[in-house]
Design a protein that fits this description.
β17 (408-413) and β18 form a beta hairpin. The protein has 2 domains: 4-386, TIM Barrel; 393-496, Golgi alpha-mannosidase II (Immunoglobulin-like). By secondary structure, it is of the alpha/beta class. The longest helix is centred in the C-terminal third of the chain and has 19 residues, at 364-382. It is globular. The protein is 28% helix and 22% strand.
Length: 500
């Protein structure tokens, strides 16, 4: 707790392992039951620590009547779900994660609540927490009631809930679900099914006021925590301070990067040259917010398939593509979030009532992918260039983003110290690229920090013998360059240093 302020700073490494507690691991021999908070405390913290993640993020643990809602239909805003144990048991789990140096983020849902009679709906027989008019108080997509943010009492209730989790349970951050649905009065509605604000617009002005006051209260009372917004539109300044006109969140999920990147990777590598702009577009807006790059549970449910299943090609190419995706993601500006099971390439779509496919780790390709994620996180945490300036243009520079014909991109990441510079090169085709020249900012020996094609990870072993000496030949904007051999569907990380 004394260290979490440093660990939660925007210029600190933040790599998040997203977890649904009821399906992370189950006991088949005991009726396929899920683990309790205390049982999870024996295995989850050590597993996350071994993978070198800095944080876990729990899908909502506020009490909810329907397990299949994954917690997003909340009734008990001041109660951890009793499915896994008592409040003290949950505290024990949080403390176990803290003992391993892992921060705890929790999904929290201030956007809607279910219509169960024992919950907040018609709480005193009237529309107390919700609007009376269904055009304002009911969300047809979710069959849920919407909070009336114009009421001081409702705003106080929700703010108290948020502060309660940070206070009593030592939660280190709150990820606020469905912020988009709060900001827009016409969210999920057709013409005539919503009521405009007092200015005739579609913005929910009361929700904006609430979110600003909420973030102000959280950062006032718990300045060593963070708030995260799941917001999928171009609403301006979501992660900017309220005194400059922002909503006051610490960070925002980058849904645009996620959609564009997954669509790009779904393409046959032979066609990727025609979609090159889709890959590099994210840098145009990468510094407009404090972004988290999410590959979350939403991408592996509802018929979307698993991440490994989205990758084209035969099995070897699928794993190479997924290692490349993760390498590109960890090199790209922004904090990282990966849903459980994706670290070892779970094959089937996530199911909330089934355990992850842990048996796959007996297979070399799956074990190699898990090792790749472990090493990505290790290098990410050790190299300041990969996190210190995530939200500043000073921390990123393209070396070459125009090589669409061969689907190659290269860029450097910078920390506060120029000596910390890291070079990242991605080859998005299954073809070995010999004699690829890439510019670097200084002479000397550049050693290979990571190579996704290493045989340990299940790759083919194409590389550069551990490093390359920079020559005095210009390339792009740089006066020095490296001549490299790029592995197929591979990503390379280099840093200037001494030759081993």
């Amino acid at each position: 707790m004394t260290q979490r302020g440093e660990k939660n700073r925007l210029n600190a490494p933040c790599s998040i392992y997203e977890v649904h507690l009821g399906s992370w691991r189950r006991i088949q021999e005991d009726g396929n039951r899920f683990l309790s908070y205390r049982e999870l405390a024996k295995s989850l913290p050590s597993y996350v620590a071994a993978l070198n993640f800095t944080h876990v993020e729990f899908l909502p643990l506020t009490e909810h009547p329907f397990y299949g809602s994954w917690g997003y239909q909340t009734t008990g805003y001041f109660a951890p779900t009793a499915r896994y144990g008592t409040p003290q048991d949950f505290m024990f789990l949080v403390d176990a994660l803290h003992q391993q140096g892992i921060g705890v983020i929790m999904d929290w849902v201030p956007s809607h609540f279910p219509d169960d009679a024992h919950g907040l709906a018609h709480f005193d027989g009237t529309f107390l927490f919700e609007h009376a008019d269904p055009r304002q108080g009911f969300q047809p997509d979710w069959h849920s009631f919407l909070f009336n943010y114009g009421r001081h009492e409702v705003r106080a209730f929700l703010t108290s809930s948020a502060l309660f989790w940070l206070d009593k349970y030592h939660i280190d951050g709150l990820r606020m679900d469905a912020v988009t649905s709060m900001l827009y009065l016409d969210y999920g509605r057709k013409d005539g099914e919503w009521i405009a604000n007092r200015n005739g617009g579609r913005e929910n002005l009361d929700a904006v006021t609430f979110l600003r006051h909420l973030n102000e209260a959280i950062y006032r009372d718990y300045p060593d925590t963070q708030t995260f917004a799941e917001e999928s539109t171009d609403w301006p300044m979501v992660s900017r301070p309220t005194n400059t006109g922002g909503l006051g969140f610490g960070l925002k999920w980058n849904m645009g990067w996620m959609h564009d990147t997954l669509q790009y990777f779904a393409e046959d590598p032979l066609n990727r040259k025609y979609h090159h702009a889709q890959l590099i577009f994210s840098i145009w807006y990468a510094f407009s917010e404090n972004f988290v790059l999410p590959l979350s549970h939403d991408e592996v449910v509802y018929g979307k398939g698993s991440l490994i299943g989205k990758m084209p090609g035969d099995e070897w190419q699928q794993f190479a593509n997924l290692r490349l995706l993760y390498g590109y993601m960890w090199g790209h500006p922004g904090k990282k979030l990966l849903f459980m099971g994706c670290e070892f390439g779970q094959k089937r779509e996530w199911q909330h009532d089934q355990s992850l496919e842990w048996e796959l780790l007996q297979q070399p390709q799956h074990a190699g992918l898990r090792l790749w994620v472990e090493d990505l996180n290790r290098v990410y945490r050790n190299e300041a260039a990969l996190y210190q300036q995530d939200f500043s243009r000073d921390g990123f520079q393209w070396m070459d983003c125009h090589y669409a014909e061969k689907s190659i991109v290269s860029f450097i990441r910078r920390g506060y110290n120029p000596a910390d510079t890291v070079l990242v090169i991605c080859n998005f085709t299954p073809i070995v690229r010999d004699n690829y020249r890439v510019g670097v900012p200084s002479s000397g020996y550049w050693h290979e920090l990571l190579n996704s094609d290493t045989e340990l990870y299940g790759g083919s072993g194409v590389g550069n013998f551990g490093g390359v000496e920079a020559g005095p030949i210009s390339a792009g904007d740089m006066f020095y360059s490296l001549m490299l051999r790029l592995p197929p569907l591979g990503v390379l990380f280099f840093k200037r240093g001494r030759k081993a």
